[in-house]
Structure formats: structure tokens, C-alpha cells
């Protein structure tokens, strides 16, 4: 096919880890083990971001996703003391057959769409990628062009904090 | 550097997330599958950002991560409230809104 570079070798290793851990995640009975496989998947995604020269996003992926969000998940799983599910698949019901058919159709559709991107995309400017992925360039964009959306996210986070506290509270006075 | 493999990987991971949401009945695993789908979209955003030499895609990933964090906090609070009322996280047993 194409020439073999270090980057493409890294890509294929990380892609296999990513797909494998995602498959393991949705097939495990125990939610704690599923959460651990999801963390593996997030780390492999961080590696994939590095092969695309997006250093800042890669660091954020590990800090925010693998750090903060997954700690929340594991904490809730432990808090609820969830055991294994009774049975992984209570027989192949008609619902699951329909679900499998729909997902397969969607996969074919997506592969069909992505199969044509090479002709329709503009010429690659991949050599610029190393400079735009830095903290400096992302920060500059974030505090100039995207200042208003950035401020709106703080309101969103405030709403999420209040919502989480109200929902998880034992009794409303 | 070709971004097409990244887009294929993104599509495959997204579909794995869809299968997880449709086939699993444990609310927390459904939730983790949603995170998986959000991540696969992030991957294609970063791939396009690198291909076009434009940082807008990476800014968008930043916002998606913020929304995912907010969603995880609120969603897990809902799961805790549900568990307190029904003693289960099995989605087949949670059907009071079903007609």
C-alpha cells in the first residue's frame, strides 16, 4: 500500500489497542472492568492525538477523560456496589437483532462516506499541524476568536454542578 | 500523511459505542458507550484539524470535552437518584415513563 513510516506503525498499534479495548469494554459483565478498559481506550486515543501533532488535546485527554471523568465513573460504580449482571445477553431477542442490523447499516454508510474523502478533500496541509497543536496557539485562539463560547462553557459547568448536587441530594427541603 | 485511516478508526469506534448503547442494559455501561462515541467524534475532528492546518477542530474538541464532563456529572447524579428509588441500574426495570 503506502510507504511504511514510524507514524503509520504507531497508528496501527494504537488503532488495534483502541478497537480491542472498546470491544472488551462493551462485552464485560463487571462494570469496574469495563471502566478500566475504557481508560485503556482513552490512553490509546491520547497516543493517536500525538501522532496527529495535537499535543494539547492529548494531554487534555489524559487529564480530563482518563483522570477526572473516569474517576467519577469508578467512584459511582463503587458507591452503588454493582455486582455482575445476571446474564450478559438474556437470549438473542428480536430487539438485539434489529440493533445489530441497524449498527451494521450505519457502519457501512460511514465507511462509504469516508471512502470518498480523499478525492473531495482539499490538499493536505499536514506540515502545519505541528505548530497549531501547541498550548500557545490553542490558547491564543481560545481567548480571541472563541472567547464568547469559552465564557459560555463556564455557565454550562456551573449549571452542571448545581444540577448534579440537586439530583444527588437525598431530600429536597 | 493520510487521514483516511483515522476516519475509518473513528467510524468503527463510533459503531462499537452504538452497539454498546443498543445492546447493553446496564445504565453505567450505556453511559460509558456514550463517552466512547463522543471520543470517536473527537478523533475525526482532530484528524481534520491536522489535515486542514486549522486549529478550529481542536478548539471544538475542547468544547466537546467540557460538555462531556458536564454530561457525566449530571448523568451519574441521575443514576444515583434512580438507584436510590428503584435499587437497580438495569434499564429494562426503569420504565415508569413508558406507555
Key descriptive features of the protein:
heterodimer; A: 173 residues; mainly alpha; Four Helix Bundle (Hemerythrin (Met), subunit A); 8 helices; 74% helix; B: 99 residues; Helix Hairpins; 3 helices; 78% helix
Gist?
Chain A is mainly α and 173 residues long.
Structure explained in plain terms:
- The complex is a heterodimer of chains A (about 170) and B (about 100).
- Chain A is mainly α and about 170 residues long.
- Chain A has a single domain (about 5-85, about 100-170), classed as NADH-ubiquinone/plastoquinone oxidoreductase chain 6, subunit NuoJ (Four Helix Bundle (Hemerythrin (Met), subunit A), Up-down Bundle), CATH 1.20.120.1200.
- In chain A, about 75% of the residues lie in helices and about 0% in strands.
- Chain A has helices at about 5-25, 30-50, 55-80, 95-115, 115-120, 130, 135-140, 145-170.
- Chain B has about 100 residues and is mainly α.
- Chains A and B meet through helix 1, helix 2, helix 3, helix 4 and helix 7 of A and helix 1, helix 2 and helix 3 of B.
Low-pLDDT stretches of chain A: none
Task: Give Rg of chain B in angstroms.
Answer: 17 Å
CATH class of chain A: Mainly Alpha
Report the principal-axis shape of chain B: elongated
Strand content of chain B: under 5%
According to CATH, the fold-level topology of chain A is: Four Helix Bundle (Hemerythrin (Met), subunit A)
Number of helices of chain B: 3
| Number of extended strands of chain A | 0
Query: From the coordinates shown, what is the CATH architecture of chain A?
Result: Up-down Bundle
SS class of chain A: mainly alpha
- Protein chains sharing the most extensive interface: A-B, 82 and 69 residues
Percent of residues of chain A in helical segments? over 70%
Order of helices and strands of chain B: HHH
User: Roughly what percent helix of chain B?
Assistant: over 70%
What is the CATH T-level topology of chain B? Helix Hairpins
Oligomeric status? heterodimer
Amino acid at each position: 500500500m503506502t510507504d511504511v513510516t514510524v507514524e503509520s506503525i504507531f497508528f496501527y498499534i494504537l488503532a488495534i489497542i483502541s478497537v480491542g479495548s472498546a470491544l472488551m469494554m462493551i462485552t464485560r459483565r463487571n462494570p469496574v472492568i469495563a471502566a478500566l478498559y475504557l481508560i485503556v481506550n482513552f490512553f490509546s486515543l491520547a497516543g493517536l492525538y500525538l501522532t496527529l501533532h495535537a499535543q494539547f488535546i492529548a494531554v487534555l485527554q489524559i487529564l480530563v477523560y482518563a483522570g477526572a471523568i473516569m474517576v467519577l465513573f469508578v467512584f459511582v460504580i463503587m458507591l452503588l456496589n454493582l455486582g455482575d449482571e445476571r446474564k450478559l445477553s438474556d437470549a438473542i431477542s428480536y430487539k438485539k437483532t434489529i440493533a445489530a442490523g441497524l449498527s451494521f447499516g450505519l457502519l457501512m454508510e460511514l465507511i462509504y462516506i469516508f471512502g470518498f474523502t480523499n478525492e473531495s478533500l482539499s490538499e493536505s496541509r499536514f506540515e502545519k499541524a505541528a505548530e497549531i497543536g501547541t498550548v500557545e496557539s490553542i490558547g491564543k485562539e481560545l481567548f480571541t476568536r472563541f472567547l464568547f463560547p469559552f465564557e459560555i462553557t463556564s455557565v454550562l459547568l456551573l449549571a452542571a454542578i448545581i444540577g448534579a448536587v440537586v439530583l444527588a441530594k437525598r431530600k429536597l427541603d | 500523511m493520510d487521514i483516511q485511516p483515522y476516519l475509518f478508526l473513528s467510524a468503527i469506534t463510533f459503531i462499537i459505542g452504538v452497539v454498546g448503547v443498543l445492546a447493553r442494559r446496564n445504565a453505567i455501561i450505556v453511559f460509558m458507550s456514550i463517552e466512547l462515541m463522543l471520543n470517536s467524534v473527537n478523533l475525526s475532528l482532530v484528524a481534520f484539524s491536522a489535515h486542514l492546518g486549522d486549529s478550529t477542530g481542536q478548539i471544538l474538541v475542547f468544547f466537546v470535552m467540557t460538555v462531556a464532563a458536564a454530561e457525566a456529572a449530571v448523568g451519574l447524579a441521575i443514576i444515583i437518584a434512580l438507584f436510590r428509588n428503584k435499587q437497580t441500574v438495569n434499564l429494562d426495570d426503569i420504565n415508569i415513563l413508558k406507555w
